[in-house]
Amino acid sequence: MFTARLLKERIEQKPFRPLRIKMSNGESYDISNHDAAWVLRDSVEIGLDPDAEGFVSYTRRCSILHIASIEDIPTSKAA
Q: Domains of the chain by range and CATH?
Protein backbone atom coordinates (compact mmCIF):
# COMPACT_ATOMS: atom_id res chain seq x y z
CA MET A 1 0.00 0.00 0.00
CA PHE A 2 1.30 3.42 -0.94
CA THR A 3 1.13 6.40 1.39
CA ALA A 4 1.47 10.12 0.74
CA ARG A 5 4.80 10.08 2.59
CA LEU A 6 6.24 7.25 0.45
CA LEU A 7 5.08 8.89 -2.76
CA LYS A 8 6.47 12.28 -1.72
CA GLU A 9 9.83 10.72 -0.82
CA ARG A 10 10.00 8.96 -4.21
CA ILE A 11 9.20 12.15 -6.14
CA GLU A 12 11.72 14.18 -4.13
CA GLN A 13 14.59 11.69 -4.53
CA LYS A 14 17.82 13.23 -5.73
CA PRO A 15 18.73 12.71 -8.43
CA PHE A 16 15.17 12.54 -9.72
CA ARG A 17 14.26 9.41 -11.66
CA PRO A 18 11.25 9.64 -14.00
CA LEU A 19 8.42 7.39 -12.85
CA ARG A 20 5.13 5.92 -13.99
CA ILE A 21 2.15 5.66 -11.66
CA LYS A 22 -0.24 2.84 -12.56
CA MET A 23 -3.76 3.04 -11.21
CA SER A 24 -6.08 0.20 -10.20
CA ASN A 25 -8.34 0.95 -13.20
CA GLY A 26 -5.45 0.39 -15.65
CA GLU A 27 -4.67 4.04 -16.36
CA SER A 28 -1.06 5.17 -16.04
CA TYR A 29 0.60 8.56 -15.72
CA ASP A 30 4.22 9.46 -16.40
CA ILE A 31 6.01 11.96 -14.20
CA SER A 32 9.02 13.29 -16.04
CA ASN A 33 10.30 15.74 -13.42
CA HIS A 34 9.73 16.52 -9.75
CA ASP A 35 7.76 19.68 -10.59
CA ALA A 36 5.09 17.68 -12.47
CA ALA A 37 3.42 16.15 -9.39
CA TRP A 38 2.04 17.53 -6.15
CA VAL A 39 1.38 15.14 -3.31
CA LEU A 40 -1.61 15.92 -1.13
CA ARG A 41 -2.66 13.97 1.96
CA ASP A 42 -4.95 11.52 0.11
CA SER A 43 -4.19 12.15 -3.55
CA VAL A 44 -1.56 13.21 -6.04
CA GLU A 45 -2.10 15.94 -8.62
CA ILE A 46 -0.20 15.10 -11.82
CA GLY A 47 0.62 17.68 -14.48
CA LEU A 48 0.00 16.33 -17.99
CA ASP A 49 0.88 17.25 -21.57
CA PRO A 50 3.82 19.60 -20.87
CA ASP A 51 4.92 21.99 -23.60
CA ALA A 52 8.53 22.69 -24.63
CA GLU A 53 8.97 25.03 -21.66
CA GLY A 54 7.59 22.50 -19.18
CA PHE A 55 4.21 24.17 -18.59
CA VAL A 56 1.45 21.58 -18.32
CA SER A 57 -1.86 21.81 -20.14
CA TYR A 58 -3.97 20.20 -17.44
CA THR A 59 -3.78 18.07 -14.30
CA ARG A 60 -5.27 14.81 -13.11
CA ARG A 61 -6.02 14.17 -9.44
CA CYS A 62 -5.48 10.53 -8.47
CA SER A 63 -6.42 8.94 -5.17
CA ILE A 64 -3.38 7.42 -3.47
CA LEU A 65 -5.62 4.50 -2.40
CA HIS A 66 -6.02 3.57 -6.07
CA ILE A 67 -2.31 3.50 -6.96
CA ALA A 68 -1.55 -0.09 -7.98
CA SER A 69 2.17 0.36 -8.69
CA ILE A 70 4.98 2.82 -9.25
CA GLU A 71 7.80 2.01 -11.64
CA ASP A 72 10.86 3.75 -13.03
CA ILE A 73 10.70 4.96 -16.61
CA PRO A 74 13.88 3.95 -18.40
CA THR A 75 15.84 6.94 -19.65
CA SER A 76 18.06 6.82 -22.68
CA LYS A 77 21.54 8.14 -22.13
CA ALA A 78 23.29 9.78 -25.03
CA ALA A 79 26.77 8.42 -25.62
A: 4-72 (2.30.30)
Which helix (H) or strand (E) is 31 found in, with range? strand 28-31
10/31 Cα distance (integer angstroms): 11
Q: What is the tens place of the pLDDT at every residue in 29-71?
A: 999 888 999 999 999 999 999 888 888 999 999 999 999 999 9
**CA pair distance 35, 39, nearest whole angstrom:** 11
The predicted model scores a pTM of 0.85
* pLDDT at residue 48, rounded to an integer: 94
As a whole number of angstroms, the distance between CA 40 and CA 4 comes to 7
Amino acid at 21: I
CA 74 – CA 63 distance, rounded (Å): 25
Question: What is the total residue count of the chain?
Answer: 79
